[in-house]
Design brief:
Shape: globular
Largest sheet: 6 strands, parallel
CATH superfamily: Alpha/Beta hydrolase fold, catalytic domain
Number of domains: 1
Helix content: 25-40%
Strand content: 15-25%
Number of helices: 8
Radius of gyration: 18 Å
Strand order of the largest sheet: 2-1-3-4-9-10
Number of strands: 10
CATH architecture: 3-Layer(aba) Sandwich
Distance between the termini: 35 Å
Length: 283
Amino acid sequence: MSENVDFPPEKSLTILIPGLNGSGLELGQLPRFLENNGHKVLIPEIDGYLYGSTPKKFETWISQIDSLLDRQFEHYEYIHIGGISMGATLALAVASQRTDLANLILMSPVLKYDGWSVPWYRPLLDFFYLLGVRNWKYVEREPYGVKNAELRRRIGEKFKTSEVSDMGAATITARHLHEAIGLMTFADVHLHSVNNRMLIIQSVEDDTCSVWSAKEILKYANSELRRIIWLGNSFHIVTIDNEREIVLNEVLRFLDRADAVNFSLDQQYNDRNPKKLKSREME
């Protein structure tokens, strides 16, 4: 095992963005795990995007992250950005418009809602929205983005008494979904402007978006370093599902190596305190 290395304070920050209408719970243990292993982590407040706020245009989501980054660059030399689900898409969109970000962490990025559990009538909802029928909400349903049966059960129970759980909110407004479509289109169109080193973690059984999104990013982004981890026993919310320990360890390893390169260190302490893998039955 390589020797631990303490980086100078206020040198590196990782911004992690929750999913659409989320609360940060769907990031699972990742923020604390990274903090415990020496990485500063910030989960941003994004008005009109996160749970509990009135939805706003996707351009304002990007501008809020831009303003946050400008402030944080007064304190940090390097900033990494990433997220889960639509949070990954938002991070991708922001990165396509800036040249000062270090690395991208994309967990289940969404450029198109084409997963196997997405209802057949999903495109019709966008059509009705454009016609002016907007007073509706999309209700989340099983499998809630998770393959683990016990976790699915707990999420279902949670939704009986609460509007938000580990996988996000129980419902998503029509406006949120409409703006998400705009964000996905924006991120896809600007992929050629992305040149950050990136880590993509994607389940091959993702119920919300197929592997097409990850492959699209790999194909059109101009990043010199593109590492992808394919998962085979998870659905969409990979940070809390059956292979969550793999997700935590891979993100830590990626950030450790990135900071080692950024700070010109010989030691790459990528195995300091990895999360032990738990054996779970394939379903």
